[in-house]
# Entry
Amino acid sequence: DVKVTQSSRYLVKRTGEKVFLECVQDMDHENMFWYRQDPGLGLRLIYFSYDVKMKEKGDIPEGYSVSREKKERFSLILESASTNQTSMYLCASSKGTGGQPQHFGDGTRLSIL
Amino acid sequence: SQELEQSPQSLIVQEGKNLTINCTSSKTLYGLYWYKQKYGEGLIFLMMLQKGGEEKSHEKITAKLDEKKQQSSLHITASQPSHAGIYLCGGYSGGGADGLTFGKGTHLIIQP
# Structure
């Protein structure tokens, strides 16, 4: 089975802090994704990566950056956390191209105070 | 841009009853994916549909994709408490890196 592991289930940080969310997958998938999920808005794509050191902006990249130094690891960075970034963050991975299903981690519920 | 509309937004069903959730895309899909999410957790992949008219089943859950590949339904037979959660459809209409667009989800509650 595909395993996508997010480093924290719950995280509380303060406004202005630099926040790192880590995600690791064990199935050698080429593609990795970061979403945020908010009530009434559904899942929204922040960034994705289709190869090591490659990244593409999703629908809502403002205030975020990402890093993919190794194939199995995809990090989401909040450069200067703000209260409107309080959300559920979900990492996913998928194999190759052609619309393969994405497999998700358990999510990180991030609160910015 | 592609949009996916799910209906209903929420559903309360008595245990043992059948139910259907619908997902409609504004564009023709190359792939349609159904996921289940328990409250506060990640998404669990259920099924993928790629061909017009395709139908797949897993235990008591059946999903269908219409011939035009713009509409899908998820049907649960003889619902159980374990079916409760949020069901989301995701759609792929081409483009790079398999980016999916998701519906906003259907909250399913099973009443004993």
